[in-house]
Amino acid sequence: MRIQIAGVLMELRGIIPDMIPENTRQFETTSTGEPELIYTFHLQDELPKPDESWRPLFQKESIAVFGKADLELRLLIDPNYHALYGVYEEKDSQHIEVFYAKVNTALLKIDTIFISCLSLERHFARRSCYILHCAFLSFKGKAILFSGPSGIGKSTHADLWCKYIPDTHVVNGDRCLITRNSDGSYEANAWPVCGSSQICHMEHHPIHAIVFMGQSPQNQVRELSLMQRFQLLNMQLMVNHWNVEATRRAMDWMLAFCQQVPIKEYHCNMNPDAPLLLGKSLGFDFE
Question: 148 and 108 share a domain?
Fold first, then answer.
């Protein structure tokens, strides 16, 4: 099976479509070109462990990362049961072996489990594309990205736009992939993980603005300094900070992005008029 996300062609071997989450299957393609990434899945009773040629780079509850030259190996861990469910191993920049615990085959259909096996954020970062934690809203074909910590009200505010502002819909309720066009502009792209919203559409739109959400009894738009924009973006962008060079590139990318794309902070209530003040500050006329 082949999938294509933001122009990157990938081939998935050793796995049948019925094992793959529905949101990922939306990205299936019949393209016959040379894939940039080839994943070979192995469903096994026992998973391999890294040999001594791999050096430890990073570890937390859900992942342990090892490195060798420019390659990575990842142990994928279920933090609830402290159990290893997968091993991701790069053979070279194009070929990846994925060893997955056969006993957990049914769990592959969970978006986050399956995408963790692909480590896509690493490969897209190499192409200067980054995943943002946000509610991805389309208004008249332009992307407005509501970002901030979980539970802050991103999806609720996006729903207010959909309910009260015409020509508006949610493309993804949890994340988007940001890419840069040849003319220097930025786009928000569909992503196969959408969190609890279950909203995942195959669309891409030019980015009009990013809005970092806050809660307040009174609606208030806050203009931000360059450093404030950078800091807020850094907290919600997916970056593998154990990789020094990848982190440096991400920092440079974020600085350029913050200087070009409008980024605001909006503290608001969730009343029906909450989108109006924000829309006006973003240059929209709802009349």
Answer: no
Neighbours of 225 (CB within 10 A): 9
Q: What's the domain range around 269?
A: 130-281
Residues 92, 160: one domain?
no
- The amino acid occupying position 216 is S
pLDDT of residue 241: 94
Segment 56-82, tens digit of pLDDT? 999 999 999 999 999 999 999 998 888
* In a shared domain, residues 76 and 143: no
Question: Is residue 125 situated within a structural domain?
Answer: no
Q: Does some domain include residue 287?
A: no
Residue 123: strand, helix, or coil: helix
Q: What is the pLDDT of residue 211?
A: 97
State the Cα–Cα distance between residues 48 and 64, nearest whole angstrom. Answer: 14
Assess contact for 211 and 265: CB atoms under 8 A: yes
Quick one: 138 and 249 in the same domain?
A: yes
**Strand positions, DSSP E, 70-174:** 71-78, 83-90, 95-101, 130-139, 142-147, 168-172
- In the chain, the number of structural domains is 2
- Asked if residue 185 and residue 100 are part of one domain, the reply reads no
Mean pLDDT of the chain: 95
SS3 275: helix
Other CB atoms closer than 10 Å to residue 273's CB: what's the count?
A: 11
pTM for the model stands at 0.95
CA 184 – CA 255 distance, rounded (Å) = 14
Record the tokens describing residue 123, joined without a space: 């490969």
Residue pLDDT, tens place only, 30-47: 999 999 999 999 999 999
Whether 149 and 225 share a structural domain: yes
Q: What does the chain come to in residues?
A: 287
